[in-house]
Amino acid sequence: MNQKLKAFTLIELLVVIAIIAILAAILFPVFAQAKQAAKKTQDLSNVKQMTLAHIMYWGDADDVTVTSFSNGIPGDFTFMVQPYMKNRAIMLSPGRTVSMASVGAACSANLLPGGIDNPWGENSLWGYGYNTGHDWNDGQGLVTEVDRAPGDPATYDITLNGRTYTVNYRNPIKVGKSATSVNSPAQTLLLGNTADTIVQGMGRGDISDIKFDGPNPDACTRLRKANWPTWGDSINIGFVDGHAKNTKMDKNIGSWRMLAGSGRRSGSSVIRDAPKVFTNPCIYFSDWDGGNTGNCQTGDADPS
């Protein structure tokens, strides 16, 4: 007996294709969001691990936070505690996918593969910075500045990835502080995501929204602040007491006046006017005691 073969009609095929297309349109954004969430979680884990590495370093360094004595070196401050992590990949943020080749061309050739700031040939920016204060030279964060002694050598050699580089000593040297002298360790910034490039800091100018960099930011600024903040409206940061969390950024206030403080180059009467950056900018100050240290809570002018 002959059996009649049954086939899909054109209408039925079109309906199936339409259903698949609708499901894809619904699910693909969910997959993208899940992937981004996974990267954000990995990033927070990296921040936590680096934070703990610093704490272990303090235990072996007589309670002194990291000292940075050289210009350059990738990751700079956290690079100094890399032996406590045993894994350089922790220092690379999965959220900072800005090409090193592009940044090397626009910002500094030192970032190109083989350069002093990229000796391992990383493909993207490192993406994490350290609390040197709300301004690079203000001495308010976890370092202060000390002049090199007269007659001290200006350079030294360091071997990275089998290649020897001649590196300049800083002058002044950024010297660490006593970790236990930090007044509010659970509320004081240690490290976190940054849009800085070479010697990664977390100054307000380094991590502010690009709209505060003027009407025509240069190519380097446009690159390093591409898709910034790293996680939409927030970044991951670690605190001196060892905990880490995702922290919402203040992307709206572009003028927040804070005293430069005790840095070698900045007298106590100097005011740094820069974006607010954090809801609580006081997290920069190692001596913050809950008050209006350095005008951090109010962003007002120097009352004196």
Please summarize what this structure is.
The protein has 304 residues and is an alpha+beta fold. Helices cover 22% and strands 19% of the residues. It has a domain at 35-246.
Helix count equals 4
- The helix-strand sequence is HEHEEEEEHHEEEEE
Tertiary shape? globular
How far apart are the first and last residues' alpha carbons, in Å? 106 Å
Strand order of the largest sheet: 2-6-7-8-11
Structural class: alpha+beta
Helix content: 10-25%
Q: Profile the largest sheet.
A: 5 strands, antiparallel
Give Rg in angstroms. 24 Å
* Assembly level: single chain
Provide the residue-averaged pLDDT: 86
Please mark out the parts with pLDDT under 50 across 5 or more consecutive residues, or reply none.
Answer: none
What fraction strand? 15-25%
Number of strands: 11
Index terms:
single chain; 304 residues; alpha+beta; 5-stranded antiparallel beta sheet; 4-stranded antiparallel beta sheet; 4 helices; 22% helix
Q: What features would you describe in this structure?
A:
Strand 7 and strand 8 (244-250) form a beta hairpin. The protein has helices at 10-60, 100-106, 204-207, 219-224; strands spanning 68-70, 128-130, 143-146, 155-160, 163-176, 189-193, 234-239, 244-250, 256-259, 271-274, 277-278. Helices cover 22% and strands 19% of the residues. It is globular. The strands form 3 sheets. The chain has a 5-stranded antiparallel β-sheet. Strands 1, 3, 4 and 5 form a 4-stranded antiparallel β-sheet that branches. A two-stranded antiparallel sheet has the order 9-10. It is α+β, with helices and mostly antiparallel strands. The chain has a domain at 35-246.
